Structure formats: structure tokens, C-alpha cells
């Protein structure tokens, strides 16, 4: 009976799985494009560094902390009007990706900042002493030296987004969370609930393994 239920569920489970991957993928891409530069800005504008600017540091830090302090389920509902404005809908994985992306940006930015702080400041000071430009320091020192930390942080962000994507199902965001709520919660189908939990666990483990493998591969220390 359990196997027959799983087989009948497979088409919807496959669709929900790829919707989850789509949401998480978009969120990670936005985190890389926006969150990484923000994290580097937070680092290089800190006291004693080559682009020290306390005003920028404080303003960007406050914005990042403000967004991070909002629980995702509240952020999800709060951003529904904005999502409707830019996409014309609040339903589906693309709509849920808006809130996921907004949540991912400050989350990853702080991880990038923390990873950059692990770099020996003496190396940066030496580069400044020989006349290296800020862009050269970022490109040739900060990015290569902190790459393992950036990749590990991206893995952590991906796992967090998988959890967030499940919450998006509460407002019709699609994905595995939506499937679990529609069948597992509203229809009291324990088979669906159990299956979706297993799928999420396997997905998280796979992401963690791949992330750890890549981070170790690029770590030259």
C-alpha cells in the first residue's frame, strides 16, 4: 500500500522537487551576485582596512541586520505586494524565489564578511604598501584566499534556503513544502508527509556533501 501510494505520487513529487531546486537555485544566484559584493563591502570598509568608511559600514550593516532579524515566514508575507508588483502573481516557485532571494542576500553577506576576516591582515597591508589598487586587492587576495569560506558559506545558505522553500509552501509557493502541506497536512496523508521529509533530508545531505567536497578541493592551505 505504501509503495503504491509513492508510485501514484511520483509525478507530483518530481514536479515539486524541481520547483524546490528552481527556488533554491535562484536564491543562491542572487546571493552570489548581490550578497557577496555586500559582504566584501562590509569587510573592506571596516576600521583599519584600505577602504575604511564607517558611514558605509554602519548603513549597510544596519540594512543587512534589519532583514536578517525578520523571521522568514513574516518576510514572505510582507513581500507579497512587492512580488505581485514585479511578477504579477504571488503563487508559484518564481514568486517564492523573490522572498528567498531577499532572505539569502543578507544571510550570505554576513558569511562572506566572516570568511574575509580570516585572511591575514598582514598580507593586505603588504599589498597596500606596494601600491596595489583596491580592486586588485579584492581580486587577487581576498577572493582567492577566502574562496573555501565563501563556498562553505554558499553551502550553508543553500541548506537554509531549502528549509525556507518548504515554508513557502504555506502561501502556495510550490515545491516540496507545498506538496507536504496540501497532502500531508490538509488531507492527513502520512505517506506524503513522510516521503517529503525523506526527500528533503536526502537533498540537504547531498548539498552538504557537494559543498564540502568543493570547499576542500579549492583550499590550498
Automatic annotation (TrEMBL):
The record lists the organism as Aquibacillus salsiterrae
Entry's Gene3D superfamilies?
A: MetI-like
Q: Which SUPFAM superfamilies match?
A: MetI-like
GO cellular component assignments: plasma membrane
Q: Which GO terms describe its biological process?
A: D-methionine transmembrane transport
Of which family is this protein a member?
Belongs to the binding-protein-dependent transport system permease family. CysTW subfamily.
Q: Which domain of life is it from?
A: Bacteria
Subcellular location per the Swiss-Prot or TrEMBL entry = Cell membrane
Q: What are the alphabetically sorted keywords of the record?
A: Cell membrane, Membrane, Transmembrane, Transmembrane helix, Transport
Kindly give the InterPro entries that the UniProt entry links to this protein. Answer: AA_ABC_Transporter_Permease, MetI-like, MetI-like_sf
Name of this protein: ABC transporter permease
> Which Pfam families would you find in this protein's record?
BPD_transp_1
Q: Which residues form the ABC transmembrane type-1 domain?
A: 17-211
What is the membrane topology here?
Multi-pass membrane protein
Amino acid at each position: 500500500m505504501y509503495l503504491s501510494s509513492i508510485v501514484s505520487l511520483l509525478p507530483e513529487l518530481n514536479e515539486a522537487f524541481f520547483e524546490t531546486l528552481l527556488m533554491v537555485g535562484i536564491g543562491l544566484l542572487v546571493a552570489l551576485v548581490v550578497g557577496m559584493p555586500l559582504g566584501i563591502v562590509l569587510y573592506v570598509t571596516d576600521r583599519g582596512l584600505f577602504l575604511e568608511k564607517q558611514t558605509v559600514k554602519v548603513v549597510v550593516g544596519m540594512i543587512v541586520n534589519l532583514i536578517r532579524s525578520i523571521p522568514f515566514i513574516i518576510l514572505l508575507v510582507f513581500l507579497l505586494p512587492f512580488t505581485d508588483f514585479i511578477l504579477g502573481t504571488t503563487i508559484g516557485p518564481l514568486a517564492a524565489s523573490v522572498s528567498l532571494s531577499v532572505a539569502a542576500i543578507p544571510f550570505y553577506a554576513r558569511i562572506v564578511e566572516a570568511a574575509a576576516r580570516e585572511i591575514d591582515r598582514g598580507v593586505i597591508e603588504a599589498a597596500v604598501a606596494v601600491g596595489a589598487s583596491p580592486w586588485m586587492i579584492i581580486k587577487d587576495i581576498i577572493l582567492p584566499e577566502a574562496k573555501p569560506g565563501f563556498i562553505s558559506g554558499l553551502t550553508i545558505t543553500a541548506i537554509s534556503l531549502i528549509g525556507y522553500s518548504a515554508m513557502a509552501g504555506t502561501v502556495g509557493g510550490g515545491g516540496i513544502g507545498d506538496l507536504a502541506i496540501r497532502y500531508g497536512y490538509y488531507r492527513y496523508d502520512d505517506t506524503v508527509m513522510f516521503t517529503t521529509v525523506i526527500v528533503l533530508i536526502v537533498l540537504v545531505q547531498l548539498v552538504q556533501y557537494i559543498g564540502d567536497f568543493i570547499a576542500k578541493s579549492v583550499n590550498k592551505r
